[in-house]
Design goal:
2 domains, single chain, eight-stranded antiparallel beta sheet, alpha+beta, Creatine Kinase, Chain A, domain 2
Amino acid sequence: MSDAVIISSRVRLARNLRDYPFPNRMSTSQGEEIAEKVREVMCGKDFCGYKFMAVKMEDLSEFDRVAMVERHLISPEFAAPDSKKLLITTENEEISIMVGEEDHLRIQVIIDGFELEKAYEIADRLDTELDKKLHFAFDKRLGYLTQCPTNLGTAMRASVMLHLPALKESRTVARIAANLSKLGLVIRGAYGEDTESVGAMYQISNQVSLGISEKSAVENLRSITEQLVNSELKTRESMMQSFEYQDKIGRSYGILITARLINHKEAVRLLSNLRMGICEGLIEGVDLATVDSLMLKIQPASLMRLKGTRLSPEERDRVRAEIIRSELRPR
């Protein structure tokens, strides 16, 4: 039942080339040199069994860039309108490398489901092969050298995206967060630090990268995630005994398949209720993949990217409702 709670797994590595200063001290020409080196190594041929393409951020429209943030492909800083940065990615966006973010490289692997070990294995293989060509900055005592000292050591952040509606409803997430911090982990909103939970989506990730191996960090995260999943499922079991909560789920589905206008915040809240209803067997005829896809598709920039034009808030509300009705109505 982990798919009822776990959305995706991610491993991200921060790396810097040893022969160049950190990005905040680097000239524009040095940044361009690094981008070209990475592009030459990874693109135009198979690299580690994958085909990569290079995307210049300056060539993308504003809503193309922001839609990438919504899909967790890049950071908000990387999407800045004056960005001269380079993104290296596979066609399915499972693997991406931000060149020129806070560090020279941010290697990221995102896989659907509870696939932490697989994500780490892919990231580690890419890291090893890139190091042979690019030569990363490493210190025997401090580990990988990064612009921000908090990333020293493995410079790895492993995370799992979770759907925790029952724990959010029961107001236990704050207590859980306090306990996790003692274990070197942190739980945040779906878009990381200083973001709120949207649709009861949370990220849990390792907070410590110095003095712990990558494999130990992954194992620790897996263990704690399994405990969180069990806690969420037990709380759901109790909550679903309430006719009031069952009614809330049914009404959410009713609104979603009939609404003509719906804003993003309401849509995500209702889809979160629907997702729980599907997992608990209360709603039939809709699968989780459809709901998870809608969660991404109905975000503001993603809607405009889908339509290929800028939309006013009112137009987005109308288009969002149309898409939701089309994909959720019983066939």
